[in-house]
Amino acid sequence: MALDRSNPVPNDLSAFWMPFTANRQFKKTPRMFVSADGMYYKTADGRQVLDGTAGLWCCNAGHNRPRIVEAIRQQAGELDYAPAFQMGHPKAFELATRLRDMAPEPMEHVFFTNSGSESVETALKIAIAYQRAIGQGTRTRLIGRERGYHGVNFGGISVGGIVNNRKFFGSLLTGVDHLPHTHLPEKNAFTRGQPEHGADLADELERIVALHGPETVAAVIVEPMAGSTGVLMPPKGYLQRLREITRKHGILLIFDEVITGFGRLGSSFAAEHFDVMPDMITCAKGLTNGVIPMGAVLATREIHDAFMHGPEEAIELFHGYTYSGNPIASAAGLATLETYREEGLFERAAELAPYWEDAVHSLRDCPHVIDIRNMGLIAGIELEPIAGAPTKRAFSAFLQAYEKDVLIRTTGDIIALSPPLIIEKHHIDTLFGTLRDILKGLD
């Protein structure tokens, strides 16, 4: 149906089945964004809403960035689409090179996807195929972690550990096990940065490997810092211990950096921030500043070269997507990486992190706050659930924040914040001042 330009809100919302949304509640009182610029969204009723979440952890350079907009416009008029199978176009190769150059040193090859979910599926398939390629075909098991989030495709929800993302969809993949999560509020509440307690939880990997036999395990996948489950930080020494155990047993280690990649912690990737190098890194979101769907898997030369055998005319990896390395997405990616570099946004995030941290922890004395966690330009504020009504308190905070012109994100009873890296101190003051007022009035 045609949109009435005098009223930017459609009068029929029924057709769109919205993702991860309380559809009935939303369609009774819709919240519509119609434009965005810099740190702000504009609503259908003309209000400016401060973006405290970089969209969905993805608009790291803010909104309506001229270099990115112009790159998309030019590319659409030059080459709109090119097949990715047995053909190529220059910008996909250029973007892969740029990604390789900014990634941690072991990462030398890039496989393009369309999203974080697809990047995870790709990395899991590469891991199993790699083990077969090197003569370890019995290694088919995958190990994730409780409360892990790795997208919404079957591989991702199988290795993931968020209950509602799993329980509705049958038996999922077989041969998957899970490490315990690292959330220890009784020991680590209100920690600034990495918590002191919990590195020993990585040793559970030894138990799982012993249970199944190391010769059956292909890969372990974890988020270096778990975002969508409620901002869970890795305890000091935890990631290092995972790397030691996986290397000892010939198991690949995959870091899911869909959220932590591209400056969120003040570095290109969390692998650099924590100085722990995995065998593969999955990314998306900030790769194109959220403007156009695109994801990638970064892999070591060892993994890539294991497939480069047999006749030269033979396909080495039977995997890919119609839109792998899409020309317009590639142009957006190149412009996004240049924007990050030109404006020093990763360094800016690192410089602002202490101010952000102090602002986050200033909410410690607010009603219902039972924990606060932060790192880089990320924060999690955990609220005490209402008895018998989990998620209701945080969702109420979300609705009130929107009415007060601030966008936050909630997961369970946790408020998650991850602003664009262009945020200024006065934006931080507004964000946390508004949250303080909301928390003081919450039931």
UniProtKB/TrEMBL annotation:
InterPro entries: Aminotrans_3, Aminotrans_3_PPA_site, PyrdxlP-dep_Trfase, PyrdxlP-dep_Trfase_major, PyrdxlP-dep_Trfase_small. The keyword RNA-binding does not apply. It holds the Pfam family Aminotran_3. GO terms for biological process: biotin biosynthetic process. Keywords: Aminotransferase, Pyridoxal phosphate, Pyruvate, Transferase. Its EC number is 2.6.1.18. GO terms for molecular function: adenosylmethionine-8-amino-7-oxononanoate transaminase activity; beta-alanine:pyruvate transaminase activity; pyridoxal phosphate binding. The keyword Transferase applies. Belongs to the class-III pyridoxal-phosphate-dependent aminotransferase family. This is Omega-amino acid--pyruvate aminotransferase. The lineage of its organism: Bacteria, Pseudomonadati, Pseudomonadota, Alphaproteobacteria, Rhodobacterales.
